[in-house]
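Structure request: GDSL esterase/lipase At2g04570-like, Populus tomentosa.
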Amino acid sequence: MANVLFISWFLSLAQFSTLVITIQAKIPAVIVFGDSSVDAGNNNFIPTIARSNFEPYGRDFTGGRPTGRFSNGRIATDFISQALGLRSAVPAYLDPAYNISDFAVGVTFASAATGYDNETSDVLSVIPLWKQMLFYKAYQMKLRAYLGEIQANQIINEGIHMISIGTNDFLENYYAFPGGRRSTQYTISEYENFLAGIAENFVRGLYGLGARKISLGGLPPMGCMPLERNTNLMGGRECVQSYNNVALEFNDKLSKLVKRLNKELPGINLVFSNPYFVFMQIIRRPSLFGFEVTSVACCATGMYEMGYACAQNRLLTCTDADKYVFWDSFHPTQKTNQIVANYVVKRVLYKLI
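Returned structure:
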């Protein structure tokens, strides 16, 4: 009986993954903080190599143009915005093509390659999380000047604030520099606690600025990213289980944090958006979701490339990204983003509506 229910759940999720769900709700805006999972192009406007505003990125985006999203098309928050009855793409705050009238219904302050830890953002000179908070404060001032105090406060109070960050702290910082400052300063469990403390302070900061509907995102199975798998030669190029275990441990700490803050902060509606398990099911049973390839990415050789390396080897890039779970060695395809986004909307974000 359990197996029947298990398969039934998979089939329903697979069917669900092909749909773009639209929820008729009064959510006025989606306001986003984080890393490359939700950066729509902010890094295009800062001096960093962590960029994707060139081909083959964006080839399946509207107009077939690269935007700075680390995908062949849209990212998860774009699909979430659309599902909430808002725009089909959330613009980057630093993009001069947009203004406060656009940002009033959706904006992302995210920066690819950043993390909770300031030392993570320093690696590739990207926008740290604390500066994203400063951008948000400036945004609030612009919003009040544009709409007036009452309507601006309504957007801030009723808008969904989404946080998607943390993977780079481990893969780009802690594990990337053996014997480095963080790995000698903290055990992995202590580092998780350190990051969770930053997450708590950030949520409290948003709350202090009037945000009441907040989604704190968890980590995906980061050991299954093609870059990690294809450098795991001794493990037969399988997922790096130790990295996945860290993701599970950290997610558990974030989940407990969410429960505690919901009790401590009056009027807050804080949810934990955990992509780990749906992402793992996609990787374990790709055919149920229409995928054919999980261990390598679409871009270039699919083993190690991301960013400029994808551009340099773009002639090797696959022709149909919808067959691949990953677009580059670190980031999912548009199709994967859509499945995960729709799952999060249906299973988690409905609580904020």
